[in-house]
Design a protein that fits this description.
alpha/beta, Leucine-rich repeat, LRR (right-handed beta-alpha superhelix), Transferase(Phosphotransferase), domain 1, EC 2.7.11.1
Length: 998
């Protein structure tokens, strides 16, 4: 019995004890519990916020003062929390630091409640979804030092109270939707050390001179804030300024000389403005801390001041200005100089002879200037040189032998100079060089066997020099070669047999040399060859039938050789834009597809090749000269009659036309870029509503089957000007249209839909494209037939399209931004090969309609594909294409539409991120895809996410993307795929390229 009572006592005690514990969570803990209720917490970041604890001090993200146990700091950054900002936090009387950086905090900030956070010193709400006006009363907080609201959707103007912060040191409002101008009263926050307002859609305004009062300022970052006018002199008072970034504005005038008073400045970024005048000449030597100067893409003129070069500069970027004079020799003394970009100026004289000896020069680009003299011997003394670009200058002499030891080199572009002599043998074999461009010089000598070492070489461009001798067998060992251009040299001997091993080869151009022998066996391994030009050599023998296996060949020129025998019938397998077999010794029949008048020039000068095209060779029976004379006279007379007739008819016709304006269907003007097998009238007749296969923002698309059985797709752009008043303006714009269309028409790539021609009338424009039998990816993927698209096909489509876009971005001059990448603009041929369509046209249409930016917003992309930065920059560039392409990848992986009512407010990108969080990978992958491909699908999904990252800078370039996809492709080919079911992020380094000269 006693035993039992003891037990009972014990129990009671325990119950009491535990009761007292539950009751003991302190007041601050209770407030935090209340804040927790406010959040959606999918990742259970607050799971250890246990209401049974006595204090919140051990909870995730919470820091307490050790003596009083009051909460002093709350850090819940990157925790995927959503919901509004919890006002209750301001009841924590000693809370001095709050960070919700990188969450999904939404709604507006509770202005009045925040004003109660009297202890607050540090508030970081960057990268959330906050909206509405900036909190006005936050300026009342007496201790606030740090306020970061970057990357939200705050709108409206910067409130006037912001001039009254008492202790604020950091104010960061980057990447919001702020309006108005940068207000002068910010100059009153005398404690400020960092002012970051970049990337906001402010109205055009000047830099307030009052900012010069911020004498404690260390960082002033105003990129893309619609600044106009001059840089105020007063900025020279910012004696502690370390980083001044005013890039991407419309600043004009000259750079004030007071800027040289910024003695603490380390980094100066002025690129992409409209500044003019020279750099200030004096005083640079005061700026002893300046390490990085980027004043590129302005209108600077004058010379580079010597004092500038005496600074301990690390990076000097003055490209794309109008600078003249010489590069001061003092620049070679900068011990830390690693980057020197001066391209596109008018600089002259020689490069300092010591350049590169005292510093580890990594990147030198002085292209498109007027430099002369020799390459300094010591450029690579420190073994760091990777990018070496001297294109379009007047450099002369030989490549110094020392560069042959420069194993760090990646890209060498010495084109269009006056270099001469032999290229040092070791230079040919540098192991990391991927681009070796020596075009347009007077180099001589042969290509030595040492080239075998250049295992990374992908482009070998030697055109227009005096190289001679045989092409070494070793060239065929360079398995990464994409391009060999050696035209207009003095090469001789046969093509080495080994070249057939070059499976990646896209272009082989050796025209105008003295090469001989035959085309080697096995060229059908050139599966990617686009262009083969062996014209004007001494080749002989038969044209091998294997040529018909080069399925992506576009350009074939074997003219001016001694090829003999018959033309292989397999030529009919090819779809060529350019074919030239003229001036050889070919005989027999021309394959049927080519036995047409329009190919006449392709077969000229082969005397045994007469039958199929009339008049191809001189008829020998016309020997009688008098007879010929008679015929000639007759023809001339007939010609004169014909011209008179046409003139008469034209006058009549014009009159008739003035009366009946509407019926001018036959007045097409035609611009064609490829050999046409049809006439414009054939096309215009067939534009029947029955033939419509699609309707887009810019016009209707028709399918037209031509008389010879082939189909083309015809896009009729919506008419623009109607009234006569607009005609003149229309005509000017048409010039732009024509030029643009012509550029597009010249593009040849296996993954880009061919534009056959463009026909224009006064009120209608027709674009004639090749017809793609499998329609658009979008239609197929989002229809019941999507089952046809298994993973290997989807992957192939993604890779094809990526290659097409990469070509537009990186290989076209000027680069072409597609502006409307979407699955509906990726078309599929009979074998599901993908081609990009409709590129650049949005701009053409937009320019022609002349409505300015309003119409732009309609056409600059399609719903669900538009990159987020478009909302505030209203500009499209390559990076926006990459975002849109990322959406296409996500479509391929998920099988879902870019916008779908099922997603609610979200678009596909947000839906994927959200679902990944909630359900993991399996929730997003298209269930129709076989599970054996899961690893690859995950990898591609990763790329899709990378491309759609909200910061443009984090998206890979198209070229990089193609590389990554190829790696995935070859990996799965080798089946050594690791079996992991989770997503592992890839980290890639972005290689940049200014693309100064192609
Ligand atoms: C904020 O996020 C919460 C939680 O996800 C959501 O329920 C609410 O609708 C969102 N509010 C707004 C204004 O978007």
């Amino acid at each position: 019995m006693q035993h039992l009572r003891r037990r009972f006592h014990l129990l009671l005690l325990l119950v009491l004890a535990s009761l007292s514990l539950t009751l003991s969570l302190n007041k601050e803990g209770l407030y935090l519990q209340k804040a927790k209720l406010n959040f959606d917490d999918p990742n259970a970041a607050l799971s250890n916020w246990n209401p049974d604890d006595e204090t919140p001090c051990k909870w995730n993200g919470v820091v307490c003062d050790s003596s009083s146990s009051s909460v002093v700091s709350l850090d819940l950054s990157s925790s995927s929390l959503s919901g509004p900002f919890p006002s209750v936090l301001c009841r924590l009387g000693r809370l001095s630091s709050i960070s919700f950086y990188d969450n999904f905090i939404n709604s507006t900030l509770p202005d009045d409640d925040l004003a109660a956070c009297v202890a607050l010193e540090h508030l970081d709400l960057a990268q959330n979804y906050l909206t509405g006006a900036l909190p006005r009363r936050i300026a009342e907080l007496p201790r606030l030092k740090y306020l970061d609201l970057t990357g939200n959707n705050f709108s409206g103007e910067i409130p006037a109270t912001y001039g009254t912060f008492q202790k604020l040191e950091v104010l960061a409002l980057v990447e919001n939707l702020l309006e108005g101008v940068i207000p002068p009263f910010l100059g009153n926050i005398s404690t400020l050390k960092m002012l970051n307002l970049s990337y906001n859609p402010f109205s055009p305004g000047q830099i307030p001179p009052e900012l010069g009062n911020l004498t404690n300022l260390e960082v002033l970052w105003l990129t893309q804030t619609s600044l106009i006018g001059e840089i105020p002199d007063s900025l020279g008072q910012l004696s502690r300024l370390v980083d001044l970034d005013l890039a991407y504005n419309a600043l004009s005038g000259s750079i004030p000389s007071s800027i040289t008073e910024l003695t603490a400045l380390v980094q100066l970024e002025l690129y992409n403005n409209s500044l003019s005048g020279a750099l200030p000449t004096g005083g640079w030597s005061n700026m002893t801390a300046l390490r990085r100067l980027d004043a590129s893409t302005n209108e600077l003129t004058g010379g580079i001041p010597v004092e500038l070069c005496e600074l301990p500069l690390e990076s000097l970027n003055l490209y794309e200005n109008n600078l003249r004079g010489e590069l001061p020799a003092a620049i070679a003394e900068s011990p830390n100089l690693y980057e020197l970009k001066l391209f596109r100026n008018q600089l002259s004289g020689e490069l300092p002879s010591d350049l590169g000896r005292k510093s580890a020069l990594w990147w030198i680009d002085v292209s498109t200037n007027k430099f002369s003299g020799r390459i300094p011997d010591g450029l690579c003394s420190n073994g760091a040189l990777e990018e070496f670009l001297l294109i379009e200058n007047s450099f002369s002499g030989e490549i110094p032998a020392s560069l042959g030891e420069c194993r760090s080199l990646l890209r060498v572009r010495l084109g269009h100079n006056n270099f001469s002599g032999e290229v040092p043998a070791p230079f040919w074999g540098l192991p990391h060089v991927s681009l070796l461009e020596l075009i347009g010089n007077s180099f001589s000598g042969g290509i030595p066997k040492t080239i075998a070492g250049a295992s990374n070489l992908s482009q070998l461009i030697l055109s227009v020099n005096k190289f001679s001798g045989n092409l070494p067998e070793e060239i065929g060992f360079l398995e990464n070669l994409l391009e060999i251009s050696g035209n207009d040299n003095e090469f001789s001997g046969p093509l080495p047999v080994s070249v057939v091993n070059l499976a990646q080869l896209v272009k082989l151009d050796l025209h105008n040399n003295a090469l001989s022998g035959g085309i080697p066996k096995g060229i059908d391994s050139w599966k990617k060859l686009n262009e083969l030009n062996l014209a004007d050599n001494e080749y002989s023998g038969k044209i091998p039938g294997e040529i018909g296996e080069l399925s992506v060949l576009n350009y074939l020129d074997l003219s001016g050789n001694r090829f003999s025998g018959e033309i292989p019938i397999s030529l009919q397998n090819l779809k060529l834009n350019h074919l030239n077999f003229s001036y050889n010794h070919l005989s027999g029949h021309i394959p049927q597809d080519y036995a047409k008048e329009m190919y006449r020039d392709s077969f000229l000068g082969n005397s045994e090749l007469c039958q199929e095209i009339e008049g191809l060779c001189n008829r020998k029976e016309m020997k009688n000269k008098g007879y010929i004379w008679f015929f000639r006279t007759l023809i001339v007379l007939a010609g004169i009659l014909l011209i008179c007739g046409i003139v008469w008819f034209y006058i009549k016709y014009k009159k008739f036309n003035d009366v009946k304006r509407n019926l001018d269907r036959s007045k097409w003007t035609l611009m064609s870029f490829h050999k046409l097998g049809f006439t414009e009238s054939e096309i215009s007749e067939a534009l029947d509503e029955d033939n419509v296969i699609g309707t887009g923002a810019s016009g209707k698309v028709y399918k037209v089957v031509l008389s010879h059985g082939e189909a083309v797709a015809v896009k009729r752009l919506w008419g623009q000007s109607k009234a006569g008043a607009d005609v003149e303006r229309g005509a000017i714009q048409d010039d732009g249209f024509d030029a643009e269309v012509e550029t597009l028409g010249r593009i040849r790539h296996k993954n880009i839909v061919k534009l056959w021609c463009c026909c224009c009338t006064r009120d209608s424009k027709l674009l004639v494209y090749e017809y793609m039998p499998n329609g658009s990816l979008g239609d197929l993927l989002h229809s019941t037939k999507s089952g046809l698209l298994d993973w290997p096909i989807r992957f192939k489509i993604a890779l094809d399209a990526a290659e097409g876009l990469s070509y537009l971005h990186h290989d076209c001059v000027p680069p072409i931004v597609h502006r409307d990448v979407k699955s509906n603009n990726i078309l599929l041929d009979a074998d599901y090969g993908a081609r990009v369509a409709d590129f650049g046209l949005a701009k053409v249409v937009d320019d022609a309609s002349g409505k300015g930016t309003m119409s732009m917003s309609v056409i600059a992309g399609s719903c669900g594909y538009i990159a987020p930065e478009y909302a505030y920059t209203l500009r499209v560039n390559e990076k926006s294409d990459i975002y849109s392409f990322g959406v296409v990848i996500l479509e391929l992986v998920t099988g879902r539409l870019p916008v779908d009512p099922e997603f609610g407010e979200k678009d596909l990108v947000k839906w994927v991120c959200w679902t990944l969080d909630q359900e993991g990978v399996l929730g997003v992958i298209d269930p129709k895809l076989e599970s054996c491909y899961r690893d690859d699908v995950c990898r591609v999904l990763n790329l899709g996410l990378l491309c759609t990252s909200s910061l443009p800078i984090s998206r890979p370039s198209m070229r990089r993307l193609v590389k990554m996809m190829q790696e995935i492709g070859s990996r799965s080919l080798h089946k050594n795929v690791a079996k992991e079911g989770k997503l592992t992020p890839y980290y890639y380094e972005e290689g940049s390229d200014h693309g100064s000269v192609a």
